[in-house]
Amino acid sequence: MAVGQDLEAQHRVDNSEASSPEKISLESPLDDPTECNDSEEDFEVRWDDHNDPANPQNKSKLHRWFIICVVSIGTFCVTYTSSVYTTTYDQITKEFHISETVATLGLTSFVCGLGLGPALLAPLSEFYGRRPIYLCSLVFFLIWLIPSAVARNIQTMIIARFFNGLAGSAFLSVAGGTVRDLFARNELQAPMMVYSASPFLGPALGPAIGGFINQFANWRWTFYTLMIWTGTLLICFIFFVPETYHPVLLRDKAVRLRKETGNHRFQAPLEKITHSVLDSVLMSCTRPLKLLYYEHMVLNLCLFSALLMGILYLFFGAFGVVFVGSHQFQLWQVGLTFLGIFVGMIVAIALDPIFSRNYQNLVRQREAQGGEPGGSEPEFRLPPAIVGSVLVPVGLFFFGWTSYKSVHWIVPIIGSGIFGLGEVLLFSGIFTFLVDAYPTYAASALAANSLVRSCFGASFPLFGNQMYERLGYQWASSLLAFLSLLMMPFPYIFYKYGKRIRANSRHAKS
Length: 510
Known about the structure:
The protein has 510 residues and is mainly α. Helices cover 74% and strands 0% of the residues. It contains 22 helices and no strands. It has helices at residues 7-18, 61-84, 89-96, 100-128, 130-150, 154-168, 170-173, 175-182, 189-216, 221-240, 246-261, 277-294, 296-327, 331-336, 339-350, 352-368, 383-401, 410-437, 442-459, 461-471, 473-487, 489-503. α2 (61-84) runs parallel beside α9 (189-216), α13 (296-327) runs antiparallel to α21 and α17 runs antiparallel to α18 (410-437).
């Protein structure tokens, strides 16, 4: 769930757009190749003006929102695929003659693919654009669903799931940039909120839908339905989702101008880049590790969000242990218990206007104290994370100590809803803080977050069921709650002292 992997390149484009020259006319003397007194900047291809029809932000609002919806559904599909697999455990353990722990490796390998993919796909999107990455991603995502659907052993499943996650990771590394391509800064909040919800809602709804499929049909239909879904998405992307990445569109415009005028001095900013794709991939792989090593704020906040992701994926198995053991639920009923987390996430999204108003109030207070008009501090993004850091352990304790047989099943589900509410608030606060505090290295900061989250998300399910069975439902949940309690102070500490910490940082905005 790492939105905005390509923000660094987009930031450069935004800066260049702000100082773009006037429209270059084909009848202009600039087209005369014999003119030698003009500077190279006069031939740098940019948007004609703010109303340039080639600029994706000038598409109709309906078209832009349709693209956002298609991209968000693609992201939802990928994250849904990660969790819906957990509802196949009962059938594949019997068919493949394996333990549930071994079956869990299919979930682990998929999440590993999701974590590793952005380091490769984000730089490629900066060179080739969003559309080719989306199309290749969906094609390979569809291809790797086939061996999962027809697998005759767990080895095939684990390998196919890894490459499935690797292909689908494009929607976590590139799609956030598509939102930025299509909407100006003052329009971003609503479309970004819609897109940002999809990586969270997918894992929550996967077990709910998969529970019905695997209760009443063969487990292979889990993947057949995904193949139909992915094929439909591929058709939508082919016919309805154009290229939106500004540098690539400007490069296409430069090619067209050179062809129409015969003047080869026309160049787009992307054509002046000297580093190679390999250099970009290597930088994309190493810089997140440097941020984790040198920046304590990045490390602590990434560990906190990773812990939450680990707990969420651990719940995919633990919910079955708790609700089957305490309330004798069937598979489809266990799946529906995840609707508690889903509702909590929806409530968190609905609270966004409240935290937005709080952010504006903090900005106004800063202005009243002598700050520049409209200026802010990255720490102003952390109040949602502060609230979420309190709700997460509350939800976990609530879930754990109401999971007795004598307590109605709806009560622990309410506790899981509180956890889901706190989780989304924490994620949103951490993501926006990292982007704001590390503007030059925003993509790398989010890549670091994605890497650590994927490590926890891949490893926690491997011991979750055993932990709940050995410690008991109450103390297993309490252990997770105590871990979140240890991390709870950090959002507040960074809200209070973040500016002082940033002053001594080599990467953060001071």
